[in-house]
Specification:
Number of domains: 4
Structural class: mainly alpha
Strand content: under 5%
Shape: flat
């Protein structure tokens, strides 16, 4: 609209100029050309120009032409913004990155990427990085900023967020990266139908040989060979094809009647193409085989063991499973299919010692499956754990061991195995919150906190509760104000409440302020970078594991940055006392 308005102003000036200076009826006037800038104006006698001639000069019958404006004088820059969440959802703004230096943002994100974030830290990170916002103005390009978002989504396999991001942002730089990720993810699952749906998300303007090649395969699979041929011809003209692909596609199109048995594992796409065209598909993966190819082999049921005495092949599969390239269950299936005599089970104490390491593990594993006595089962779980450790394959057994130990009633575990069970069992904390217990003997756990825990609590009711609790606690001469109390008082003041003057918490506040660097981020309105710093501060810790000092830091910074929703969430999680789940 600004450009349109500018054009109107230019035409108006041109019209006035035409009335006050002579017009040559035949010659066109180049008002922007450099030639006119250097010429001295020629003074001629006044000429009366009919109104129709003026209109002919200004208005043409053709479509309006574009007025070229010197970009050195006027610069109109279009800002591209990509994200998921509207800024107002978390009290953020479009310019949350505007005052921050791009290098600092990049360095902070790269450090965060090396941390396994807790659920609370990740929640803040996602809401920060994926809020729709303008680009940082210094030392960060549009492409760099979007790549940090895309890399995090793919590296952390956030399929749901990826889907939301694609729905919210139809076109964005390097979109082919995220589409390729989705395509490969579904090929690895042998879900070719879903992978072909993914390929439709990319526009025709974006050219990528990998995705174009897969698009051709999808069209052939959907019996659209004519369309496939058109794209294939274009691909060859652009020299984006190769001999391997040509041979396989010509077979699928019916141009060649004989398939070749060449197998190419340089990419998942080439490997998939090999598997559906080779008349005799025979592939032996090794430790250098890509993880996605391992996954596809398993999902497509192409990984088969015909000879359970081939220890070298089984060993390579064990290594792949230990490196998380192959499902651990596949190894246990191999163990289940290995054959042993009745005497082997009867004399297992000595029998496993005379077997090779793979057979020994298989025998003990089968013994565990046959055990109906808890003590016997624990005994052989303990033994099998040692056998895996001996060959540096503990990662294969770790998950299975923990699952089996958790299935045993703790009261039935014999005393001699208690330490073994405890050492190999991790009981993850349940993120469910217990019921709140309001206790009026402390400010931070009193009914005053209901303002942050119950949505229907009014300011008037909270003010009355605060006055009541103050009178009650005032009678306790030895009451010590805690850092959690200070968290509550600061929060109440930021929300417009008046704290009784007799409650002196300012000294505690001064002695526990966050580092000046973090406070300056809030002061300078570098809100995006501040939130990244808070994510880095929390790191792997869940909110329930943070000490009061760290919680105070975070809440104080939320207040200074006017991040009310982030502040209210932390108060809801950490202030009130709760029953145990």
């Amino acid at each position: 609209m600004k450009l349109l308005s500018l054009n109107k102003k230019i035409l108006s000036l041109f019209f006035l100029f035409s009335l006050s200076t002579p017009l040559l009826s035949e010659d066109s006037v180049d008002i922007w050309g450099k030639k006119n800038l250097n010429k001295k104006p020629t003074i001629n006698k006044a000429v009366i120009v009919p109104e129709k001639e003026i209109l002919k000069t200004l208005v043409k019958t053709e479509a309006p032409s574009i007025v070229e404006i010197d970009t050195k004088t006027i610069s109109i820059k279009k800002k591209s913004i990509y994200g998921i969440f509207e800024p107002a959802e978390n009290n953020l703004t479009l310019d949350m990155w505007a005052n921050s230096e791009g290098t600092k943002i990049k360095d902070t994100i790269e450090r965060i990427n090396k941390i396994k974030l807790s659920s609370y830290a990740e929640e803040i990170f996602v809401n920060t990085l994926f809020t729709i916002s303008d680009l940082p103005q210094k030392n960060m390009t549009d492409k760099e900023f979007i790549n940090y978002k895309l890399d995090w989504l793919t590296d952390n396999q956030k399929e749901n967020l990826i889907s939301t991001f694609l729905n919210k942002n139809k076109e964005f730089p390097n979109k082919k990266k995220i589409i390729k990720y989705l395509v490969d993810k579904n090929i690895a699952k042998a879900n070719i139908k879903e992978a072909c749906i993914n390929i439709t998300l990319i526009s025709n303007e974006i050219k990528d040989s990998y995705l174009e090649q897969f698009k051709i395969i999808c069209l052939i699979n959907n019996n659209k060979k004519n369309e496939a041929m058109l794209i294939y011809d274009l691909l060859r003209e652009q020299k984006l094809s190769n001999k391997f692909f040509d041979s396989k596609i010509n077979y699928l199109l019916g141009i060649n009647t004989k398939a070749d048995n060449k197998i190419n594992d340089t990419s998942l796409l080439n490997f998939y193409l090999s598997s559906i065209t080779a008349s005799e598909f025979n592939y032996k993966p090794n430790k250098k085989t890509d993880k996605k190819i391992w996954q596809y082999l398993t999902a497509a049921n192409l990984l088969k063991i015909n000879n359970f005495e081939n220890n070298q092949q089984i060993k390579e599969l064990e290594i792949a499973a230990n490196n998380n390239n192959l499902s651990k269950n596949f190894i246990f299936e191999i163990y289940t299919n290995m054959r042993f005599s009745f005497n082997d089970f009867l004399n297992i104490e000595t029998a496993y010692l005379n077997l090779d390491s793979i057979s020994a593990r298989a025998l003990v594993y089968q013994k565990i499956l046959l055990s109906d006595n808890i003590e016997t089962k624990l005994k052989y779980l303990f033994l099998l754990n040692d056998l895996f450790k001996k060959d540096n394959l503990s990662n294969i057994f770790k998950g299975y061991l923990e699952q089996e130990l958790k299935s045993i009633d703790s009261e039935e575990i014999p005393a001699e195995y208690k330490n073994f069970v405890d050492a190999n069992t991790t009981y993850h904390k349940i993120n469910k919150l217990g019921k709140i217990k309001y206790q009026d003997d402390k400010y931070y756990s009193s009914k005053v906190v209901r303002f942050y825990t119950e949505s229907n609590t009014t300011k008037k009711k909270t003010s009355k509760d605060l006055a009541s609790i103050y009178k009650k606690i005032k009678k306790k001469k030895n009451y010590q104000i805690s850092l959690k109390d200070v968290i509550l008082f600061e929060s109440l003041e930021s929300d417009g409440f008046t704290i009784p003057e007799e409650i002196n918490y300012k000294e505690i506040q001064r002695n526990n302020l966050p580092p000046m660097e973090l406070l300056n981020f809030a002061k300078n309105k570098e809100i995006g970078l501040l939130l990244l710093k808070i994510v880095e501060l929390i790191g792997e810790d869940e909110i329930s594991d943070l000490d009061s000092h760290t919680i105070y830091f975070i809440n104080h910074l939320f207040i200074k940055a006017n991040l009310k929703k982030f502040k209210n969430k932390i108060l809801f999680l950490v202030l009130p006392e709760r029953t145990e789940i």
